[in-house]
Amino acid sequence: MRIDKMLANLGYGSRKEVKQLLKSGAVKVDDVLIKDAKQHVDTAEQTITLNGEIIEYKEYIYLMMNKPPGVLSATEDNSCETVIDLLEMEDQVYEPFPVGRLDKDTEGLLLITNDGQLAHRLLSPKKHVPKMYFASIDGEVTEKDVEAFAQGVTLDDGYETKPGFLKILKAGIRSEIELTITEGKFHQVKRMFEAVGKKVVYLKRMTMGPLGLDETLELGEYRELTDEELTLLREYQVK
Ligand code: URA
Hints:
By secondary structure, the chain is of the alpha+beta class. The protein has helices at residues 3-9, 15-23, 89-92, 116-123, 143-151, 188-195, 227-237; strands spanning 27-29, 32-33, 48-50, 53-54, 62-67, 97-98, 107-113, 131-138, 165-170, 174-181, 199-208, 211-212, 222-224. The longest helix has 11 residues, at 227-237. Residues 102-103, 106, 187-190, 203 line the site of uracil (URA).
């Protein structure tokens, strides 16, 4: 990759500004001063420094966020804060985006990446990637609901859902459940409960495919995926 492109990608300025930076003698590749913006560098093999500090370049970034309520799963919005706004600038420079959407009031596991191919495969309806949600429900969830979800329910627009695996954690006038679904229709969990006459009052995504929410992350916090998680996710793709 050209050194000016790499530095610009990392947010060190426009291509023009980066050219000036190079001219000023701030950049070295394997200890050799580089002033030519067209110089190619091997980001995996060579050590690139800016004013003596090593610059790390990676093409892709993979972040796990515990999405807080009140924030949009989008890259930008005119009036509302987005999950991308919550990222440090050093992560925003990779231009990541959320993989799929959680409603504004939904919390929990959100994968954020700039790897379009991986995102596409995770979201593809053909892949049936299971997602598990924890929810509090206004109303008593019963075995009848478990059976109905196992058959698939009819949503308000007539769509017949694929089977969902419903587990009752606590039954009562306010029930607590776990629901695993393999689709991602708009407001799907909320609409599945509406289909059986109940209302979701709290919703949190716990898993997506092989990824589980790191519960040490506070709401709004995020971290890079571990190598192990990334391997699991990549291997999962090919199934
Ligand atoms: N289903 C919903 O209803 N909302 C979400 O945010 C995710 C799944």
